[in-house]
Amino acid sequence: MRDLSCTSVDSEARSELQAQIPEPEEIRLRSVSRVLDVLFSDGSHSELPFEYLRVFSPSAEVRGHSVGEPLLILGKSKVTIERIEPVGNYAVRLFFDDGHNTGIYSWKQLYHLSSGYKSNWDRYLERVAQSGGCR
Fold first, then answer.
1. Entry pTM
2. Which of 57, 62, 65, 126 is the most buried (most CB within 10 A)?
3. How far apart are CA 135 and CA 78, in angstroms?
4. What is the CATH number of the domain that holds 18?
5. Residue 104 and residue 60: Cα distance in Å, rounded?
6. Taken in order 47, 49, 50, 52, is the CA torsion positive or negative?
7. What sections of the chain are H helices per DSSP?
8. What distance separates the 2 farthest-apart alpha carbons in the chain?
């Protein structure tokens, strides 16, 4: 068995890995339109609906304790984000009006939620329909 405790990544390699994922240059909370407006360092721009961010939260409540498909969260179509809090220089914590605030949205997570929005949202809507539940 390989001893991974001695495995290290030098700082140059770590910087290269981090450089591959664009970071947010600007994040704006748009309460009226109910979207998180994110401009990334690669020039890409996303308007992520509050409901989408809530049902795809990286928290254990949504993700469970596995890497598979997230748990199906229903009844969040009217959820709002009350505030955003920075977490170090790598993430934000979103505070939703339903009391949920345990998801830490890393820059990588935000970028993947942005770039995968259409497929993620389509799959979510399909799962909601299959469950017979309501958004």
1. 0.82
2. 57
3. 9
4. 3.30.2020.30
5. 10
6. negative
7. 11-19, 50-55, 60-63, 107-115, 117-131
8. 55
Does residue 4 belong to any structural domain of this protein? Answer: no
Q: Cα-flanking dihedrals φ and ψ of residue 46, to 5°? A: -135, 145
Model confidence over 39-81: pLDDT tens digits?
Answer: 999 999 999 999 999 999 998 777 766 667 778 999 999 999 9
Q: Which residues on adjacent β-strands are paired with residue 96?
A: 81
Domain that holds residue 32: 10-131
Please report, for residues 12, 20, 121, 123, the alpha-carbon distance to residue 53 in angstroms, rounded to integers and kept in the order given.
32, 23, 10, 14
% of the chain beyond a pLDDT of 70: 82
Cα–Cα distance for residue pair 56/85, rounded to 1 Å: 18
Does some domain include residue 18? Answer: yes
- Domain count for the chain, please give it: 1
User: What is the reported pLDDT for 12?
Assistant: 54
68 located within any domain: yes
